[in-house]
Amino acid sequence: MRRVERAADLDRFIAFPYRLHRGDPKWVAPLRIDVRTLLSRTKNPFFQRAEADYFLAERGGKVVGRIAAIHNRAHNEFHEDQVGFFGFFECGDDQAVANTLLDHAAAWLKERGLDTMRGPASFSTNDECGLLVEGFEHPPTVLNPHNPPYYQQLVEGAGFRKSKDLMLYQSTGTELPERLGRVAARVAHRMQITLRCLDMKRFYEEVERIKPLYNQAWEKNWGFVPMTDAEIDHLAKQLKPIVDPNLVVFAERNGEPIGFAAAIPDMNVALKANPSGRLFPGILKVLWRARRISRLRILLLGVIKEFRGAGAAELMYHHIWTTGVGRGYNWGEGGWVLEDNTPMNKGLEFMGFEVYKRLRMYDRPL
């Protein structure tokens, strides 16, 4: 095992998945520059409240696995627990290597007084998280994980047990369920809820409106960690180039925001054209392919506590669905949603979505 300390080690840490998954027709290579920014302790504001170390497993001088051990202090303070995380887990189909990686991360976490190891999360539930355990036949959407089926056996073989499943939904067609249209119309009239699209001319003012909404709307979710202003600003800056303002919507009542939803084009469709993940010349292929994206991911949708169940979520889904179809999108993904979030799961089914993938978070006592 080697701790990533030098620039050359970090290069090998970043490069390993591109070699490992080269033969997987569903895997999508992220831009390496984006991965490097995510891992950077100076550029990623996650590290203002957390620490992490990265490790490489080597055999005969060749990288055969990687992992990150993550101490998210913000999570422990918010949930009043002692949970550590592992993430960025990549490994060939070799239980011995997987055990070495996971045991090394566990030892690092235990040294810091933590009593449970949870993952995968790269770095938290606000980022890419969960191990794909169902739905391997479908390509991943932007900011969602994809892994080979054998990862489940490796993780469970290392002593991990299910903590929580995260459900991903897909639209079942482009025709809007008639009942959804009726519900949306009644909600708008009865509750006096109006919708307003994102104003790109005042983008960062709009981000300021999202900050309290985000932390209020998800505050009781399992695994949720409030995002700092710096973290939300960082995410907004990353997403701004691909945002379609017609698909980011605020629900308002008497002029005050009570919820918001954001759908983004599935940039993985374009990234698929650049298997090396390198910026040049691959970015030219990505930009060309991005002109023809017809898939959407509903990245976020939340309503503050006082108005949950009042129909605001259905109203926003109705807007995204009808607007998206009108703009040429013919497929949408909603999620992820916690398996035991019954109101949201039933609501998605009501709105014409079906479960098509399952991500799993695992725990192991330390």
Shape: globular
Name of the top-level CATH class of the largest domain: Alpha Beta
According to DSSP, the number of beta strands is: 15
Largest sheet: 13 strands, mixed
Number of domains: 2
Report the end-to-end length measured between terminal Cα atoms: 20 Å
Enumerate the spans where pLDDT stays under 50 for 5 or more consecutive residues.
none
What is the assigned CATH homologous superfamily of the largest domain?
Gcn5-related N-acetyltransferase (GNAT)
Order of helices and strands: EHHEEHEHEEEEHEHEHHEEHHEHEHE
Structural classification: alpha+beta
Radius of gyration over all CA atoms, rounded: 21 Å
CATH architecture of the largest domain: 3-Layer(aba) Sandwich
Task: Give your account of this protein's structure.
With 366 residues, the protein is α+β, with helices and mostly antiparallel strands. It has 2 domains: 163 residues, Gcn5-related N-acetyltransferase (GNAT) (Aminopeptidase), CATH 3.40.630.30; 195 residues, Aminopeptidase (3-Layer(aba) Sandwich). Helices cover 36% and strands 29% of the residues. The strands form 2 sheets. Strands 1, 2, 3, 4, 5, 8, 9, 10, 11, 12, 13, 14 and 15 form a 13-stranded mixed sheet that branches. The protein has a two-stranded antiparallel sheet with strand order 6-7. Strand 6 and strand 7 form a beta hairpin. Helix 4 crosses helix 5, helix 6 packs across helix 11 and helix 7 packs across helix 8. The chain starts with a strand and ends with a strand. The mean pLDDT is 92.
